[in-house]
Structures are given as C-alpha cells and as structure tokens.
C-alpha cells in the first residue's frame, strides 16, 4: 500500500501527505469521524482533476501554494482554467486531491479542512511550548529519556500511579499500541494535516486525538494547607493553562471549574489569580455532589481533582465518590505531596487549637510564638512513614471508590504538565474507541 514518494513540487506546502499508493489511487471509504464528508484522497494529473475536488498538494508556484488555492477551495471549471492560464501547469503535472462524498458537500469539506489546518497550526505552538517546558524540567532534574512527566520518578511517586481506569469505557491496549496524542508522537506541528486527512481516508488511527464532545470538570483544592510551598499558585496556573490551551486544540471540550474547601465555588472565570473562597478545610462530599449535578448529557464527563490532602469528611466523600462512579463519570485525582508537610505535628497540649486538618493557622502560631509556647514537634522517621502511608491509603481509598485514576506529584512545578498529559491521554483513548 505505502510509498513515501512525493509528487513533483509537493514539498512546498507546510505539510506533507504520506502513504499515497504507487498507482495514485486510494480506496473510497464510508464517512469517518474527523472528516465525515471526505470520500477519498488520491494522486491525479492536472488535466484529470475533477470538479469539486480540493487540491491538497502539488500546485506550488515559486515554492509556495498558488494564492488561489490557499484556503482549500473546491475546484471548478473557471478556477481550473484560471490556474492553467496563469501558471501554465503541464497537463501531466501531479497533484494530490481530496474528494467529497458528494458534490453538494464540497464547500463543507473545504470548511472542515480549513478548520483542521487551523487546529493543527495552533497545536504547533502548544506542543512547542509544552516540549520546551518539559525539556527544561527534565534537564533540571538531571534525568533523560522520553518518559512522560506523570510517570517520571523524579517528579511523581510512580508506585502510586493508577491510570487507564474509566467508568464510561474499558481500556484494552496492546503493549505496543500507540495512543493518539496532542503532546507526544511522531507528528510535528502542522506536518500532521496531510497525515490526518489520509488517516481518515484509509480508516487508520491518526496521531492526533479526535476533537470529541467532553465536559471537563476541573476542581482545585483551596484548603489552608494549599497555601504552603506554592501549591495553590501552581494549581491556579494549571487551571489557567488548561483554560487557555483547550479551546485552541480541543474546541469540543467544555471546561467547568470548581474551587473547594469547606465550601464550593463554581464557574469562576479564567484566568484566576486568587481562589475567591475562604481557605479552610478539605471537604470532598459537597464537591462531588455539585459536580455530579452538573453532568452534561450527550458528552463524556471527566473530572480532574487537584488536592494536597485526604478528605476530612471521608465517609460522606466516599459515598459521593461512589455516586460519581455509578453516574459513569471518568475521574482522575492528582495529589500534591511532600514528605516534609507531615514531618511536624502539633503537640497534644495544643491539638485542640488546630483545624480539622491538624494544622495551626497563622494567627494561632503568632499568638503562641508571643507566649514562647512549644506547640509542635518533629515526628520520628517511623512516625513519618506511618503518616505518609495513612495519607496515601486515604487518598487511594477515595480514588478506588470513584473508580478512577490517581497521580501523586512531588514536584509541584510539574503540575500543569501532568494535568495536560492526563487529559491528553484521555482524549487519545477515546479516539481509539
């Protein structure tokens, strides 16, 4: 089937179609998902271009696409004659064309291809920014390789990673299966447009995920403990980044935001600089119930929760998490964890002054400092290990109740990259269904 030979003059367009058959023909296929109006892609000579076809490549003038063909207009007799008169294309000059399933939808197919081109052009910038930040991060960590940040032991607790567990579908992949990705893979920026079109025509899996209707519910823990070590700042940065990136590369994703502590703030406009709610405890039940009530029919509903601690309302939180599972929400919890957060503990004498999370608030510590009180002690290594295991056990119990996935992030500056990876893989797996 495959030949990588290009038609004469083809390389001038900003993408390069692949896998054109040696005889220039490709089989017609039923309508497919990304380009439902596409019938087939094939190589023909200039003289044989049919009306309503769209020239994808091969009609370059001085190394650039002919101006009349920018925007992928459907071919008609007047346009064909104008091009021939102006540029003197030889009758046997080869071009690659896309044909619609019917002449009446040629203009619609042209719109679809322009939209795809714009999406991939945006992806070029998004992927470049992601790759540059990822490379800087890996260099700082002193680690090499093509591993995903969410699976890098320098940035996460990989032994706690749970992935590919979803309530709305089952994942069954071969070990060597390639999952379509906006962020990773062989496609390089705008070079993917031709490959995507041909993948549709040949019913192959393209490297870029489909733009599918998904409602992404993104929740950020704004409890008091999130103010330490820059966790809240990284969480807000992650929300803002997803809010900026997703409309450019996944326009069918509808983003809903939630900020939660003892209360829930819903629908905050992005970008955000402050959470806008009182930073108190870590209560999950009200959040889960609110998210469940905001499910959007006719879309996949995906919840990503970013937190730094276990639920203070574990029993009702587990019941609410089970309700999400029964409602077929797909859930990923991201835990921001640092061992040092648990290294100190309030002494028994002052424990009743601490919040439900066991943390003394700033105003309390300021008062105790003035009194010269000793209100904290350092846990022994054995106690610290036990406290960490208790945190992970509580976190995992809630994840399991929700029937979902979890990532434990130890390098907080990696949070936005990890969150992008989580959602990118989700869309890639949906594409394979």
Regions with little confidence, pLDDT below 50 for 5+ residues:
1-32, 187-191
Rg on CA atoms, Å = 27 Å
Instruction: Specify the overall morphology.
Output: elongated
Helix content: 25-40%
User: What's the overall average pLDDT, rounded?
Assistant: 83
Helices and strands: which structural class? Answer: alpha/beta
Series of secondary-structure elements, N-terminal to C-terminal? EEEEHEHHEHEEHEHEEHEHEH
Indicate the CATH topology of the largest domain: Rossmann fold
In order across it, which strands form the biggest sheet? 8-7-6-9-10-13
Specify the CATH class of the largest domain: Alpha Beta
Number of strand elements: 13
Question: If you had to describe this structure to a student in words, what would you say it looks like?
Answer:
The structure is a single chain. This protein has 9 helices and 13 strands. With 433 residues, it is of the alpha/beta class. The protein folds into 2 domains: 10-117, no CATH class; 147-177 and 209-343 and 379-431, von Willebrand factor, type A domain (Rossmann fold, 3-Layer(aba) Sandwich), CATH 3.40.50. Strands 8-7-6-9-10-13 form a 6-stranded mixed β-sheet, sandwiched between helices. A 3-stranded antiparallel β-sheet has the order 1-5-2. It has a two-stranded antiparallel ribbon with strand order 3-4. α6 (314-326) packs parallel to α8. The protein is elongated. It starts with 37 loop residues before the first strand and ends with a helix.
């Amino acid at each position: 089937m495959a030949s990588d030979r290009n038609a004469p003059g083809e390389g001038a367009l900003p993408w390069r179609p692949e896998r054109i058959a040696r005889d220039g023909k490709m089989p017609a296929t039923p309508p497919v998902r990304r380009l439902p109006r596409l019938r087939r892609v094939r190589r023909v000579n200039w003289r044989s271009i049919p009306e309503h076809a769209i020239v994808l490549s091969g009609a370059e003038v001085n190394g650039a696409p002919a101006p009349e063909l920018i925007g992928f207009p459907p071919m008609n007799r007047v346009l064909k004659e104008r091009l021939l008169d102006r540029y003197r294309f030889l009758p046997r000059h080869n071009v690659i064309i896309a044909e619609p399933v019917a002449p009446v939808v040629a203009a619609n197919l042209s719109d679809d291809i322009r939209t795809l081109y714009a999406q991939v052009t945006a992806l070029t910038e998004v992927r470049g920014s992601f790759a540059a930040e990822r490379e800087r991060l890996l260099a700082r960590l002193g680690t090499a390789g093509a591993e995903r940040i969410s699976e890098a032991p320098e940035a996460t607790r990989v032994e706690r990673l749970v992935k590919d567990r979803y309530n709305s579908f089952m994942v069954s992949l071969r070990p060597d299966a390639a999952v379509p990705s906006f962020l990773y893979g062989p496609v390089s920026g705008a070079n993917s447009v031709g490959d995507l079109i041909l993948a549709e025509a040949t019913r192959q899996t393209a490297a870029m995920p489909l733009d599918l209707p998904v409602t992404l519910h993104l929740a950020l823990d704004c409890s008091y403990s999130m103010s330490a070590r820059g966790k809240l700042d990284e969480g807000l940065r992650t929300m803002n980044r997803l809010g900026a990136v997703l409309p450019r590369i996944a326009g069918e994703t509808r983003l809903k935001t939630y900020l939660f502590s003892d209360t829930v703030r819903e629908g905050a406009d992005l970008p955000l600089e402050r959470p806008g709610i009182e930073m108190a405890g870590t209560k999950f039940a009200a959040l889960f119930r609110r998210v469940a009530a905001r499910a959007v029919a006719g879309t996949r509903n995906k919840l990503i929760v970013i937190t730094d601690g276990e639920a203070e309302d574990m029993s009702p939180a587990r019941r609410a998490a089970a309700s999400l599972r029964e409602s077929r929400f797909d859930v990923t919890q991201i835990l921001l964890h640092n061992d040092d957060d648990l290294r100190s503990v309030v002494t028994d004498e002052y424990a009743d002054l601490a919040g439900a999370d066991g943390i003394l608030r700033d105003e309390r510590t300021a008062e105790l400092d003035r009194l010269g009180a000793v209100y904290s002690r350092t846990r022994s290594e054995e106690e610290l290990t036990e406290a960490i295991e208790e945190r992970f056990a509580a976190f995992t119990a809630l994840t399991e109740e929700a029937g979902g996935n979890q990532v434990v992030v130890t390098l907080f500056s990696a949070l936005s990259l990890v969150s992008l990876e989580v959602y990118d893989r989700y869309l890639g797996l949906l594409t394979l269904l």
